[in-house]
Amino acid sequence: MTPYPCGWHWMTPALYQAFDLSSTSVQRVTRQVCKCRPCSRDKPFLVYFDLTKCSPTKLSCDTPQVCVSECPKKYWFPIPEADYLDQLNLTVDQIGEPICLDGVDPTMAGFDQEQAIQDNKCAPYVLNSTDVFNRCLPEFIFRIKPGDQFLKQLIMIISDSLESASGGVIDEEKIQSGIDFVAGFGGSALVIVEDIRSSWHIILIGIGIGCILCFLWCAIMRFIAGFMVWGSILVLNCLLGAGTALCFFEYMTIRDSETQMEEEFEFTLDINYYLRLEKTWLIGAIACGSLFVILLLLTLCLCNRIRIAIALIQEASKSVTAFYSTLFWPLFPFILEMFVIALWALITLHQRRIQLNDLSVIVTNRSIENVQTIICGRAEGVRTIEVLENATDVFCTSNSTYNVSFKYLQFFNLFGFLWLLNFIIGFSHLVLAGTFATYYWTFDKKNIPRVALGGSIWRACRYHLGSIAFGAAIIAIIQFIRILLEYLEVQLKKGKENPVVKYTLKCLKCLFWCLEKFMKFINKNAYIMVAIYGKNFCKSAQKAFFLLMRNIVRVAVVNKITDFLLFLGTLMVTAAIVLIAFFFFAFGQDYAVTSFIATDVINVPSVRYYWVIIFVIAVGTFVVAKLFFGVFDMAVDTLFLCFLEDLERNDGSADRPYFMGKNLMNIVGKKNKLSKEEEW
Fold first, then answer.
1. Number of C-beta neighbours around residue 249 at 10 A
2. Within 147-199, where are the H helices?
3. In terms of domains, do 145 and 258 share one?
4. Where is pLDDT greater, at 434 or 9?
5. Cα 244 to Cα 233: distance, rounded to the nearest angstrom
6. Which parts of the chain span the membrane according to its record (predicted)?
7. Average pLDDT of the chain, as a whole number
8. Considering the domain boundaries, does residue 352 fall inside one?
9. Do 256 and 311 fall into the same domain?
């Protein structure tokens, strides 16, 4: 089942080799030649010649670019210094030199500065800049907003500079639009990016503390699971009971009062209006009372199953702490998933760049010198055009067309991406299931192998890759169909919508959404059965499905209680890290203890938007918590299936003893008929 993902992976180097897509360098087109030169290590920064060419609609700057060793720290304009020194409040020391393309020396005697600017060989102006991800952007965008007085003066001077160089009239509104775009973009997104880059160590420390809290939460779950579950049920029952009594009391008070409202009901946004209606409190009393009775009956009827769920969670906590490495295992599939996502994005972007070029040579009436050959590009190989002695200004042009057949590669790419992503998820599930199944089916927990995770990885790679690929293919097909349905819906909205087709699409989308959820549930439990018995995917899925159907109530209780505890853990860990990060950034410089820590150990970074850093830390902690608690959830699911299988195939005799812990045996009323020496 693996040729398709392998073929998808093969497509990347094939595209690179066939269509020369490996170029990530700065492309520069001149009048003489078509050439491409990458920024080297000694010139890592990129300078844009004219920021007024930046387009808010295209989100790009259509202007020549050049690589430099460092970003310019001074200003320069092709007009007399007296015309801009006072306006910009600059000194003579802040005036620099023009920036030109490689091979152009502005200090050379007889250099025609005006002609060089017109030929796009030199920048029409130079601004004090700072580097942002190796791009030189004006320094002022980090400290002023669009419409600032400095910005207005700068726009006027840039306009004068461009008019001086071109000899024509420049539209100041276009300059204003381009500068405002760069300034606005730099004042928000780029500043945020810079804040994140300068605070990366704080972000890692925050996420690291979150990892420690997640580990502690998993470790203490065996001690607090019962308290948290029963405490939550008790508090919820008390709240519903109190809510019922309060609503009924308010209802009786309003009904017996002389000022009760008798006018007809009307819809309004005034909440006090509804609070004055006796029907509001009657409905509230009935709703709270009904929920109170239902929850109370469920608690009484499902009491034993709740105890089983708590015992399984406690046992899962023991199994997780018995194999500490399982908590860090999700990092490996997470890295693989990020690699697959990046590879998919790379192939997608490069496929969109595939074009068929019809190259030609155009001869103009201006002569050129010292040119022997011109490499115009690639179309069925490299075409080299020999320049004759009487040739004039020769340069490359091309007419590009998109081959429609290439769009089918996008579908191939998308399906391969979905398949590989689900394959990695399935592999992670099966490895964890094999590890925790080893824990459960080891009769004497003192003899648990310490390298159970490594053994599970070996078995998964050696015997079960086909089962994983088959299960992943099922999910990928369903997800692919859902994406196609979304695509069809978008295409149909462009024309006149048919109600029948629209209704059919909605039904199909709902159907495949439910089918995907169901198949993910089946896949997860099938992988557990594959890890336990080592049989193929179909037999394991069938066995897991019928085993769960015979214990459907237990399944519901265990899943909901586990989901509740893990949600609570994720919420508490994330909230704790957010509070720590907030006090660190907001008050880190004000308190002695925090200041000592910040100054000597961590250093509170100087950031403009510290709430963005807090948000990044919160998101990172949430992702880490989901990874950690995903392991715990897998432990509960694996132990639960093992527990159900243990109950059905064993009877507690010496030949078929129960493998479950004593707490679980006490809850279900089972006992092993063994001597005291053999008990564990």
1. 12
2. 149-166, 172-185, 191-198
3. no
4. 434
5. 16
6. 202-224, 230-251, 281-307, 327-347, 417-443, 463-485, 564-588, 608-629
7. 76
8. no
9. yes
CA dihedral 435, 436, 439, 440 (to 10 degrees): -140
Say which DSSP state 404 is in.
G
Q: What integer is the mean pLDDT of 89-107? A: 82
390 exposed, middle or buried (CB, 10 Å; 0-12, 13-18, 19+)? exposed
Torsion of CA 383, 388, 392, 393, to 10 degrees: 30
Range of the domain at 486: 402-549
Nearest Cα residue to 212 out of 384, 42, 328: 328
379-397 pLDDT per residue, tens: 444 444 444 444 444 444 4
Q: What are the phi and psi torsion angles at 650 (to 5°)?
A: -120, 155
Give pLDDT tens digits for 55-70.
555 555 677 888 888 8
Beta bridge partners of 68: 45
Q: From residue 106, give the alpha-carbon distance in Å to each of 79, 81, 99.
A: 15, 17, 8
Among 305, 322, 339, the domain boundary falls at: 322
Residue 535 to residue 540: CA distance in whole angstroms: 6
- The pLDDT of 650-679, averaged and rounded, is 78
CB 26 within 8 A of CB 36: yes
Q: Provide mean pLDDT across the span 610-625.
A: 87
- 188 & 50 share domain: yes
Q: Which residue has the tokens 């003893």?
A: 657
DSSP letter (8 states) at residue 392: E
- CA 353, distance to chain mean position in Å, is 25
Question: Pairing between strand 382-386 and 373-378?
Answer: antiparallel
As a whole number of angstroms, the distance between CA 143 and CA 194 comes to 13
- Is residue 484, in this structure, part of any structural domain at all? yes
- In terms of residues, how long is the chain? 680
Instruction: Please state, in angstroms and rounded to a whole number, the distance separating the CA atoms of residues 261 and 280.
Output: 12
Taking every pair of C-alpha atoms in the chain, what is the biggest distance, in angstroms?
110
Residues 74 and 178 in one domain: yes
CA 51, CA 125: separation in Å to the nearest integer?
A: 10
Cα 458 from chain centroid?
A: 30
Q: Are 394 and 385 in contact (CB under 8 A)?
A: yes
